[in-house]
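We emphasize that the prediction below concerns an isolated chain of 273 residues; any contacts that depend on oligomerization or on bound cofactors are therefore not represented. The input was used exactly as deposited, without trimming of termini.
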Amino acid sequence: MRTARTLFPHALLLALGVLFFLPFYWLLLTSLKADTEIFASPPIWFPHRLHWDNYARAVTFIPFFLYMRNTLIISLLSVIGSVLSCSLVAYSLAKIRWRGREALFLLIVATMMLPGQVTMIPVFTIFKTLGWIDSFKPLVVPQFLGTAFYIFLLRQFFLTIPQELSDAARIDGCSELATYWRVVLPLAKPALATVGLFTFMGAWNDFTGPLLYLNDETKATLSLGLQQFVGQHETEWAMLMAASTLMALPMVLLFFLAQRFFIEGITLTGIKG
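Result of the prediction step, given as a token string:
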């Protein structure tokens, strides 16, 4: 009986793992197929010959590495801005006592219920007035102004850090910024890694933002570059899948490298419910 109760959860998790892995397997498989095998019926689960040349064709069909550089610049700057701004606001809401902080926190959390489609046109008008269209600024600068969800995430984590540590730092003569930098941030690495990973994934995969604000093809990102494989009359499916695999690979590697911090950050914050 005990063996059955042990095996069932493992079998269920294994089945779920296979189910979630199947789309990525099909993506990788399609990227190695010949064009005639992609829509074959019944489906071909493994190609008769691996067409690795699809990857070489994909990175030359579009300026792939230029788009990757642009995407990497936007993603890294977004991570820096998000981690810095959100951690400062979260520290103020969690560790500094001042009148109205709870009301402001509720107001910040309430903005999470506002759909992005509602603010899309006003925000675009603001950036157009500032002359930021066709530059990376609309995609990067807002990250330096804080994001409600990440502020909530970090605040919940900061509340788990004993207040006595901050009080001891102040007694030793540390300012609020020194306490934030030397005491709180080193203890919040899991939450910071979670925010950084979420931000990087969001910026890396973002399609709407670059589509709205970037007109110059030399400034395009990978998400926009993938659209070039879809033509008016035909789609280069094999090359599209190859480029999509290359685009997804950094995300997969990043998650596996940071999964310990990521899972710990999720577990110790308010997301767990």
